[in-house]
Design brief:
single chain, 283 residues, alpha+beta, Deoxyuridine 5'-Triphosphate Nucleotidohydrolase, Chain A, five-stranded antiparallel β-sheet, 4 helices, 15 strands, 14% helix, 29% strand, globular
Length: 283
């Protein structure tokens, strides 16, 4: 029965001790809440959708101890959605100045008109563009500031993006992935700001390198819907810490393995008890 419920409900089942298909008390045993939703529209339908993040981005040679074997690192790698590079693009640095080797500008596959009486036409969008020295719009850049940020380039996702009320969009680099460029981190008010252009990410190029290529299908950046809220940090009381530490010792005694004297192995148990978030692109 549960599998037939509309996807729009976006139900999250928390710690169900019952079979949702057969137990008549299941309605009392789970929590409803609206999961953060990223809404998007593609500039052209032949371009990439956002992709659920992956646990592993680097193909390693055989061996033990790679970072991706750590469950919390894998969980961070796989947390969010990736916005993908829609085209190959090459950036070349000559005497300290960067440029796009081949400019890419594409039309939308939909038409737009200012009003019902005007003739409609497709929009156009550039793929990658740098800040300009002496620019006034979209914001002023002083010459001495330009010298510090001239290695930053904006790359379009070709996606119009919005989130539900009180949901922000956290944009950042792909975790734990070393590349000669990185996406800068930003927090965007995509719930109330109706941007009528595809969102872009700002990436910083490594000044030590003369030529950088981003291939079609590479993840440009990570986006994560997050709740707009007030978050608190508070030190535990001595009694609270005592209870926390005691609970930890009991958990180790119950679940830890002791391959060596004085050491406890929790890796397999941690993975079994780990509760991962899920990121799904609805079609």
């Amino acid at each position: 029965m549960f599998n037939t419920w509309p996807a729009a409900f976006r139900l999250i089942l928390i710690g169900l001790p019952c079979d949702v298909n057969t137990d008549p008390l299941y309605v009392l045993r789970f929590t409803f809440y609206s999961a953060p939703m990223l809404h998007y529209f593609k500039f052209r339908q032949d371009l990439f959708d956002p992709q659920p993040a992956k646990d592993i981005y680097v193909k390693r040679v055989a061996g033990k101890g790679w970072p991706e074997e750590c469950p919390p690192i894998r969980a961070a790698n796989g947390f969010g959605f990736d916005l993908m590079a829609n085209f190959d693009v090459t950036f070349v640095q000559t005497r300290g100045q960067w440029r796009v080797q081949k400019d890419i500008v594409i039309p939308s596959d939909f038409d737009w008109a200012a009003d019902e009486t005007a003739e409609g036409g497709p929009l156009t969008q550039q793929y990658a563009w740098f800040w300009e020295k002496g620019q006034k719009l979209p914001h002023v850049i002083s010459d001495h500031v330009y010298a510090e940020i001239s290695h930053q380039v904006k790359v379009s996702s070709f996606l119009f993006l919005k989130t539900d009320p009180n949901e922000l969009l956290y944009m950042t680099d792909i975790p734990n992935l070393a590349r000669p460029w990185r996406a800068m981190t930003a927090l965007i008010d995509t719930d109330w700001f109706p941007a009528n252009y595809p969102w872009h990410t700002v990436i910083e190029l490594d000044r030590r390198i003369k030529k950088i290529v981003i291939r079609k299908g590479e993840p440009l950046c990570r986006v994560i819907p997050v709740r707009r809220d007030t978050y608190f940090a508070e030190e535990m009381s001595p009694a609270g810490f005592d209870a926390f530490f005691t609970r930890g010792q009991k958990w180790l005694a119950a679940h830890g393995q002791s391959p060596l004297e004085g050491m406890v192995d929790i890796t397999r148990t941690y993975v079994k008890q780990q509760v991962r978030s899920r990121f799904i692109v609805l079609k």
